[in-house]
Every structure is written in C-alpha cells, then in structure tokens.
Amino acid sequence: MCLHHPIACPEPQSASLSQEIPPVKTSVGRTVDHLQQPAAPRSPPSPTEAVSFSRLESPCSDHVCSGAEEAIPQSHSDGEDSEADVLFLGSLLQKVSEKVGGAEGTKLDDDFTEMEKARLNLIAALTSALLSPHFQRVDTTSRAVLDIMTKTTEYLQPNPATRAKMSMMNSMSRMRGQEKGPGYTQTEAILGESMQKFGRELGEESSFGLALVDIGEAMRELGEVKDALDMEVKQNFIDPLQNLHEKDLKEIQHHLKKLEGRRLDFDYKKKRQGKVTEDELKQALEKFDDSKEIAEQSMFNLLECDIEQVSQLAALVQAQLEYHSRSAEILTQLSSKIDERIREASGKPRKEFAPKPRTSLDFSISENHNGGIHGARSPGARSPARSPAPMDQPCCRALYDFDPENEGELGFKEGDIITLTNKIDDNWFEGMLHGNSGFFPINYVDTLVPLPH
C-alpha cells in the first residue's frame, strides 16, 4: 500500500491473462474493475468512461502503473483475442500514465497541429463526439453544421407542427423514391384557397368578392414560389451539409480516434522497451505513422475543398434572392389590381335603400258555428310592431324573448302581445303574432285575457 495516496497499489506479480488483476480502489471508495480480462476484444474506453482521476495527484502514480504493468504477461498463445487484450490494457495503462503520472506522449508535428486547428475553425459545427482530449475542439466544429441545418429548416418553416409534418413526408417520400416536391401545402396556398372559395360565393356583383379572388390567386402563386425555395435550399444547401456531416466529418473523426488509440499503444510499448521486442515496437510505430498520415490526408482534402462550402452558401443566398424577387413581383401586380378594384367600386353610383311598407294584422272578433274566433286581415292598415291586441279576445304578454328551436314554434320578443288560439297542454300555448302561428311555452308569457273553457 502506497502511503502517499489512498490507492490500493497492486503488487508486481507474474500471472497469465486467465487470472484477474486486482481491482483498483479510489479515495472515494469506487472500485475500478476494468483491468480484468475482457470477454472479447473491444476498443479502449475514454478516460471518463474508465475512471475519474480528478483527485489523483500522488507521487506514487508511477508505482501504480508499474505494478499493474508487471501483471501483464510477456508472452501468450491464446491467439487474436489475447493479442487484443494486451493492446487494450497497454493503451489503457499508457493513458493512465499520461494522465496520472505526467508521462509525456509522442508529440505531433507542427504542420499536423496547425492543420487540425484550421479544420476546426473551418467547419465550426457537428454533434458532440467523444474524442480524446487532444481533439476536443472538434466538438465545437461538430455543432456548427448540425446547428446551421436545423436553423435553416426553422427559417423555411417557422411552425413546429409544419416542420414535423415536413420531416415525416420527406421520410415517406425517400422510402417510396418519390422525392419530387415538398409533399405538403404551404400556408400561403391554404390562405389563398380560402379566399378564392368565399370570393366565388360572393359573386361578381360584390367588389369584396372580386378582390378576394384576386388576392387568393396571388397567395396561391406565393405558395408555389415558397415550394421552389424549399426544394432549392434543400437540394443545394441542406443536402450537401448533411453529406458533409454524415460522411466527410465522421470519417475524419474515425481516423483521429484510431490515431489516438495507436499513439497510446506505441507510447506504452516504447515505455516498456526492455520487455517488448524491437519488432513489436517497430510495428506499433508504423501503425501510428500510417494512421497519422491517413488523418492528415483526410483533413487536407477537406481544407482544399472548402470552395464547395462557399458555393453551397452562395446557393442559399441565390435561392432567397429569387424567392423574394418573385414574391415582390407578384405582390406588386396584386397591389395594382386592388387599386383598380377600389377605383371601380368608388365610381359606381350609390344605391339608396327604400324600405318596404310594413304589414300589420287587424283582427275582428266573430264567432263561427264552432265557437271559434276568426281574424280578418286589413292589408292596407299599418300599425307599430308591438301594438297591443284588443283586450276583448284571449291574449298574453311576453315576459322574455323566445327563439324557436323546432319547426312549428312561435318566436317573440319581450313585451309582444300574442293572440291566444289554443292551449295544447299545461306547458304550451298556441297563438299568433304578426300573422305567424305557432307553439310557445306558457311560462314565458303573462296571460292577459284567458282562453274560454
């Protein structure tokens, strides 16, 4: 046990890979058992996945690593799985040695470092990718392309529901191989369709109806122009960025992660030169150099082709310019049409409203052979709408407004005098008002002259 830091330091021992290496305990009591033999070959985890070393700053760090190194066999005959195990453990211990013990790893040359900086400054956006600390600035690069694509889609379709529908329709179109149009109706076209529908219903005699038809047609054209903008931006801007994000940048990330793994393996074997053959060390160096060259070449190719990204930005600007130019042209023509409609409507002679004479009913009381009451109409007579009926016949006064809901009911307003003709039951009267006959509820009226029994 090391006295300088509360870490259980494994004692050097000679063991085969079939034996488990004792787990390492940190100061907070967490057991790290990743040094046990893995069941199958796997990629080395990142430092944050393996263990947190934020509290480990002990002078005995080298002793920790050296003790664990002794637990790794010098030779074995388990085939490819055993070789992968050794590479994994070696890379992991090299990472621990660099992080905890301050061991210096192989430095990349200045040209490579500058090219990596230029690449990060060029792209400036993707999704977060867990790369080694040497290339964490790739994370900043990762977010840019993805954020630009997202914000461009929001610019084209501000409505979240429309964006969701657009995404679903695009997915269905790709599955069916029918990606010819946007697959959804623009809001301009929906508004235009509504205007044209009601404009036609109003007819050509209505200035408002004619103006609605004109504006509706213009809105339909604006919807078609918006469709063209969406398709142009998608094909010449969003799709190329998507391709850059999913292919070129991911390929570079793959090469960089592979380079980091081989660097750790090389540094680990270089540190154990007395226990590793010269051929193994030479092979590790060659693999490291190969990965470095491939990563460097991929970044160089991306930097040399940055004119493509500039061309894609130019395509975005050109599509917007065409959209706004065509929209301005359509709206200018529409404005002229509406001005003409206003002049035509203003030039028409105004018609004067001539109210028709009101018709009133004049009832005279007479008894027929059945004892009923007959009303005689006097067509030429005029009287106020709510003139009281003669009090010598059955009638009632409305206490509230009644709006008929069913056929056969009689509507009236508060204060109307209604002539009673029959009592249907305890809840309904039958009566007449302004020449109309129908049923109405008894509790809505106050009986002035009751019906004869």
From TrEMBL:
Transmembrane segments: none annotated. Residues 391-450 form the SH3 domain. Keywords: Coiled coil, Endocytosis, Membrane, SH3 domain. Its main location: other. It is found in: Early endosome; Membrane. InterPro entries: AH/BAR_dom_sf, BAR_dom, Endophilin_A_SH3, Endophilin_SH3RF, SH3-like_dom_sf, SH3_domain. Residues 242-298 form a coiled coil. It is a peripheral membrane protein. Residues 11-52, 365-391 are annotated as: Disordered. GO terms for cellular component: early endosome; glutamatergic synapse; membrane; presynapse. Residues 116-347 form the BAR domain. Pfam families: BAR, SH3_1. Belongs to the endophilin family. This is Endophilin-A1 Endophilin-1 SH3 domain-containing GRB2-like protein 1 SH3p4. It comes from Takifugu flavidus. The lineage of its organism: Eukaryota, Metazoa, Chordata, Craniata, Vertebrata.
